[in-house]
Specification:
Elements: H1 2-20, E1 32-33, E2 50-56, H2 62-75, E3 81-88, H3 93-105, E4 110-114, H4 122-130, E5 134-137, E6 157-158, H5 160-174, E7 179-184, H6 191-205, E8 210-217, H7 223-236, E9 242-244, H8 249-257, E10 263-267, H9 270-279, E11 288-291, H10 297-309, E12 319-320, E13 324-327, H11 355-361
Parallel strand pairs: 1-12, 2-3, 2-4, 4-5, 6-12, 7-8, 7-9, 9-10, 10-11
Antiparallel strand pairs: 11-13
Length: about 375
């Protein structure tokens, strides 16, 4: 009986001991940098067979599909990756927890996680780590609940606070420091929108002439919902001078109302750019800027997860600065508003997947 109890005790300690091993790795936690500092995937592949997975909190738009495609392209660079799995929680945090637990039971070696449920997903990630599975959350924001090295290997994210700051600075410049602004958010309680708000609030709070009428407003990053919300605001407010939005929905609301679109800053998308090209001739004062859409963060997350699964360090930045991709106020040709008429509205011109792949994904 004594022997049985001792064996059980040792077995109980084994997963934690495995998880402790991730603490010894240098994953450049919190290091801020740019995409130019990216390293080749082949550097981290190793030799042993690996099975990798991507647990998505919600896969309901083209941005999510493009992010998945970048993950799959990156995984294909390692001949020893024998299986690539994708799960979609469809916006249900409990389903994502179950998805991750299913991947644990199936013995995957590395899992990247887009945890739209925020802190609610951390416990499931820790369960995977305790089984020696390298887990990397991404697209979370500059900070994320939990402890790197214990609850997950490292948090990988665009500099979301910086995105909020850059967006707000552009709006302040476009409006000459005065006007009413609306800020659209994503899903309820997500850490990305919360981190973005830190940046834009910092700028707007320091600009007395700017009034934030509402924000962040829940849209689920769904253009239809964003249009519905914007339509209600057009009836509610006499003047809206600037909008921060990562979907085209609010522009559609203005079109339907027959009103001119105010200063706009968001995230690169072919539909947004083509709408600007279409509308700007008749709206001479319509100005727009978009930041890169950072679908490529799934590649960085996978590189770090695979490196950890192989017991390797990964010095790439874990917080990546996101530059402006388009700016109608700039004289720089590289920042001209881009519209590719050969691509469908849903295409993302700053994505790391090529035009042919996007056409295939969009059914063109």
């Amino acid at each position: 009986m004594k022997h049985l109890m001792t064996t059980t005790f040792l077995i109980a300690l084994a997963p934690a001991a495995i998880a402790e091993g991730f603490k010894d790795l240098d994953m450049a936690d919190g290091k801020v940098g740019t995409r130019a500092e990216a390293l080749p995937m082949e550097q981290f592949c190793g030799d042993k067979p690996l099975r990798v997975a991507y647990s998505d909190g919600w896969g309901g738009n083209f941005w999510r599909r493009a992010t998945r495609a970048e993950f799959e392209e990156e995984a294909a660079k390692c001949p020893n990756i024998t299986e690539v799995r994708y799960t979609d929680a469809e916006g249900n945090p409990q389903k994502q927890i179950s998805d991750i637990q299913g991947l644990i039971a199936q013995g995957f070696d590395a899992i990247i996680v887009q945890p739209d449920g925020g802190a609610a997903i951390v416990r499931a990630m820790r369960q995977a780590m305790d089984q020696g599975i390298a887990v990397v959350p991404f697209e979370t924001g500059n900070t994320f609940p939990g402890t790197p090295g214990t609850d997950y290997v490292v948090n990988v994210s665009p500099d979301v606070v910086g995105i909020g700051r850059t967006s707000a600075e552009w709006v302040v410049n476009a409006l000459g420091g005065e006007g009413n602004v609306v800020v659209m958010g994503g899903t309820p309680g997500n850490s990305y929108t919360a981190n973005q708000a830190i940046g834009w609030k910092e700028v707007f709070d320091a600009t007395p002439g700017i009034t934030v009428l509402e924000g962040p407003v829940v849209t689920n990053w769904d253009p239809a919902k964003a249009q519905q919300v914007m339509t209600a605001m057009l009836s509610k407010y006499e003047a809206i001078d600037g909008i921060l939005s990562e979907t085209s929905g609010p522009i559609r609301a203005y079109q339907a109302a027959g009103k001119s679109v105010p200063a706009w800053v968001g995230q690169d998308g072919n539909e947004l750019s083509c709408l600007y090209k279409e509308l700007s001739p008749e709206m001479g004062d319509f100005q727009m800027a978009n930041l890169e859409s950072h679908t490529w963060t799934s590649r960085i997350a996978l590189r770090k997860a695979v490196a950890a699964a192989n017991g390797m360090n990964n010095p790439e930045p874990s917080i990546i600065e996101v530059p402006l991709f388009e700016d109608s106020l700039s004289d720089d040709p590289a920042l001209a508003v881009k519209c590719d008429p050969d691509l469908a509205a849903g295409a993302i011109l700053s994505a790391g997947i090529d035009k042919a792949k996007q056409q295939e994904m969009l059914g063109q």
